[in-house]
Structure formats: structure tokens, C-alpha cells
Amino acid sequence: MFIKQIARVVGVFALLSAMCAHAQFAKPEDAIKYRKAAMTIMNTHFARIAAMAQGKIPFDAKVAQDNEEVFATVSKLPWSAFGEGTDKGDTKAKAEIWSDQAKFKAAQDKLLAESLKLNAAVKTGKLDDLNVAFKGVGAACKGCHDGFKDK
Length: 151
Ligand code: HEC
Prior knowledge:
Layout: H1 2-20, H2 28-53, H3 61-74, H4 96-99, H5 101-124, H6 127-148
Helix pairs in contact: 2-3, 2-6, 3-5, 5-6
Bound molecules: heme C.
């Protein structure tokens, strides 16, 4: 009985810390690592979709959907990790992120908007739709990197 209760309490704490992980980081380095990891995962799943859209690998609607699902979730994660004090360290983030926050936010919103179009495109199961939507997302990545990420 007692053990079960402890297990439940520990489970709740684990869940809570997972939920808060995006909101606060113990150290700036942790936030930097987190956002870079999120970008890397986002990139991996987007690259699979892009390869299909460009005919580099065979088109499989189910695989496209699975990758889009991960992409859609992970692409929401990096942004809360650009908090105060995370402008220095092992990072390519430009100072403009903090000096022009409205523009940085607009670039995030652009990605979200294009990501919703990608979601609609993978649902039609048509390669032509995917091809259009993937370009939109790619432009949103590039648009932000051009202004806010060092080479
Ligand atoms: C709103 C701005 C923004 C958008 C949109 C954006 N990125 Fe980034 N990305 C950044 C910034 C800033 C960095 C640098 C982060 C750092 O070094 O702390 C970065 C870094 C990266 C990295 C390098 C990660 C590493 O380990 O150093 C990859 C890969 C990446 N982005 C891929 C993508 C892809 C793919 C997309 C689109 C699907 C995308 N990004 C959209 C801002 C953005």
C-alpha cells in the first residue's frame, strides 16, 4: 500500500517536472542545450519530409504523417528556452533575439503558420501538396536563421 502511494507521488512529481521543464531551466547552459536539441530533432523530422517532397526517397503518406506529427510537437519547444541570460555561451543565437523580440516572435509565428499548412498537406496524402507546404516551412526556418542565428 505505502509503496504504491510513494510510487504515485513520485510519478506526479516526475510529471510536474516534465511539464515545467520548458518553463524554467536551472542554468543558462541547460536552456541553450535544450533549444539546440529541439532544433536538431525538428530538423531530423523535417528533413525526412523534405526528402520525400523532393523525390529523394519514395513518398509514403503514412511516414510523412508520422514525421509531421513529431515535427509539429517539437517545433513548439525551442522558444521558451531563449530567456534572459541565455545569449552567451555555446550558442549561435544573435543579440537581435533579445533586442528585437517582436520580430523574433513573428518568425516563430510564421513557422507555426507554415507548420499548420504542412499538417493539412500530409493529411491530403498528395505529394504535390507536400511539396508546396515543405517549401513554406523551409522558408520559415531560413527566414529566422538569416536574421537571428550566426552562421
Ligand atoms: C524563430 C526563429 C527560428 C526558426 C523559425 C527556426 N530556427 Fe533553427 N535556430 C534558431 C536559432 C536562434 C538557432 C541557434 C540556437 C543556439 O545556438 O542557441 C537555431 C539553430 C538551429 C539548428 C542548430 C542546432 C544546434 O545543435 O546547434 C538547427 C539544425 C536548426 N536550427 C534547424 C531549424 C529548422 C529545420 C527549422 C525549421 C523547420 C528552424 N530551425 C526554424 C532560430 C530558428
